[in-house]
Amino acid sequence: MKRYIWTRRQMLLRGSAAFGALMLGGCDRLSQSPSFQRVLSSAERLTYRAQRLLIGQSLAREFTEADLSPVFRSNGTFDPNNQVYNGLRANHFEDWRLKIRGLVGRPLELSLAAIREMPSRTQITRHDCVEGWSAIGKWTGVPLGNILNMAQLNPEARFIVLYCADELERGDGGYYESIDLIDAFHPQTLLAFALNDKPLAIANGAPLRLRVERQLGYKQAKYLMRIEAVSGLDTIGQGKGGYWEDRGYEWYAGI
Hints:
Helices cover 30% and strands 22% of the residues. By secondary structure, the chain is of the alpha+beta class. The strands form 2 sheets. It has a 5-stranded mixed sheet with strand order 2-1-10-5-6. Strands 3, 4, 7, 8 and 9 form a 5-stranded antiparallel sheet that branches.
C-alpha cells in the first residue's frame, strides 16, 4: 500500500508540473480543447473509482505524538487579511458563525464556542502536499458527518461545498472546495479547531478548517465560513468542484 501511495503522489506531481509547463509555454489552447478535457476527465473518473474500490471507508494511518513534525508547515494563504476576516479576528472569532445551508432540512449557524463543546475526535495524521512535502500533526475537531446529521441532509444532496474567507487573487470569488458524501461522513473527516493541542493559528486556518485525511493538502480547506449541501457542482465556480480544480488540479486527490 505504501508503494501505491508514493507512486500516486509522484504521478500527481509530474502531472501538475506538466500542466504548468504547458500553460507557461503558451499551450493553453490545448487545455481548452474538448478532446483534451475528455481525456483528463476520463482519467480522473478512473482514479476515483479505483480509489473507492481499493480503500472504501478504510482509515488513514494514524501516528503517535513521538512522530509529530517539529513545525507544521503552512501553505497557500497564510492570512486572508481582508475586511471581513480581520473584523472577526479582532475579537478572537467570537462573532464568527459557521453557516450550514443548501439542501438541508435544518439550516444552522454555529459559533466557535458551540462547535468546541460538541463531541470531538483527536487524530495524529500526515498531511501530504501536492508539492511533495509532508508534515504530521495532531488535529482535534468535530466529525463533519455529525454536523451534517444535525442539519438533516435532503435526499438530493450529493456533495458538500466548503466556502472560505481567503482570496488568493483579487476578484477570484474566494477559495472553495468540495467533497462527496462518502468522504464527508468518513470518521476521520473533521472540522478541526485545534492543532497540537492549541487553537488553530492563523497560518493553519483559524478558526476552523477541514481535515479530509485521505486526500492531498489542497483539499483541506482553511478559514471556513460556510458549508452548502448540493446535488451537483456544475454551477459552482467553473464547475470543477474547487479553486485549484478550476485551474487544472484533480477534484479527487486521494492518497
